[in-house]
Amino acid sequence: MPGAVTVGPDDPVALLPGVGAARAEVYARLGIVTVGDLLRLAPRGFEDRRAPASAATLPAEGEATWVGRILSARVVRPRRGLCVVEMAGQDDTGEVRARWFNQAWLARSLVPGVTVVLHGRLRRVAGRAEFAAPAVERLPEAAGEEHPGIGRLVPVHPATPGVSPAGIRRAVWTALGRVRSLGDPLPEAVRVAEGLPTLDEAVRRMHFPDALGDADRARHRFAFDELLVHELLLARRRALRRRLEGFPFRFTPTLDRRIRSRFPFRLTAAQDRVVAEVRADLLRPTPMNRLLQ
C-alpha cells in the first residue's frame, strides 16, 4: 500500500479508512476501540474461497464460490411482508442466479456490469445454478488487485448491527496493510522453546491463514500469552502478599492432639502432609493463603 499512512496498535480504530468516527462507535460495541483491539478480534470461522468455480463447473448443489459480472438485479414482492432480491450474473461460461429474502437494500449495490464474488449454498433450478442468500462482495476492477474476500481462506468475524463480517474483514485487511510492527513482548528464547510464531505472524495468520493449521497455531500463541499474563499477575500478587505482616501462631503438640481427637477417624498420610503444610504456614509472619479441599 504505497504512500499509505501507517498506524500503531494503540491508535484509534477511527483512523482506518472505511471506519471513521461514526462507525467507530459501532465497533466499540464489540470492544474494539484501538487498531490493536481490531487485530485481536479472532474470526469465528472461515469460508474456503481459494478456488472459485465458473458457471459451467459449479456443483449441482452444496457450498461454492463464483466470480462474475452482474447482468441485472430486481426486487420482487410476491406477497405482503415479503420481498425477494433476484440477481442474474454471468461469466465466460454461462449464467448464475442468486436470491436474497427481505434485504431490499441489497439491490442498490447490485449494479449491472460490476464484478462480484458470491459464496454460499446453491442448487440447480432448470439446469441453472442458483445461490440461496449467498455472501456477496464487490471486487476491484483493476486486474490482479488483491481482495480479502476471494482467493483465500476468508475469515468470518463476529458482527454487530451496523457493521457486517465483511466490513470488519475489510477493516482488518486495511489495518494489516498499514500497521507498524506490533513488537513482541515474549522473549525470543521462550517463543522458540515453545514453537510459537512471532506476534506479527500470529496476527496475520489468525485472520488470513494459508491453511487452517496456521490459524490454529496463531490462536495457540494468543492462548499462551493469556495464560502467561495470568501467571505473571498471580506471581505479582504472591510477591506483594509476602510483604504483608501477619500474626504467627504457635501450633503445639497439645493443640494438635486436641484437634485430632475431634475427628472420628485417623488422618491419612496425605491429610497428615497437608496438616503439616498448614502448620508451617501458621508459623510464618505473613498471612496464609491456602485452599483446602
Please explain how this structure is put together:
- There is one protein chain.
- With 293 residues, this protein is an alpha+beta fold.
- Helix content is 33%, strand content 22%.
- Helix 5 (199-207) crosses helix 6.
- It is elongated and about 95 Å long.
Report the helical percentage.
25-40%
Task: Estimate the mean pLDDT confidence.
Answer: 91
For the termini, the CA-CA separation is 59 Å
What structural category arises from helix and sheet content?
A: alpha+beta
Number of helices: 8
Please indicate the percent range of residues in DSSP E strands (runs of 2 or more): 15-25%
Low-pLDDT stretches are none
Order of helices and strands: HHEEEEEEEEHHHHHH
List keywords for this structure.
two-stranded antiparallel sheet; 33% helix; alpha+beta; 8 helices; 8 strands; 293 residues; five-stranded mixed β-barrel
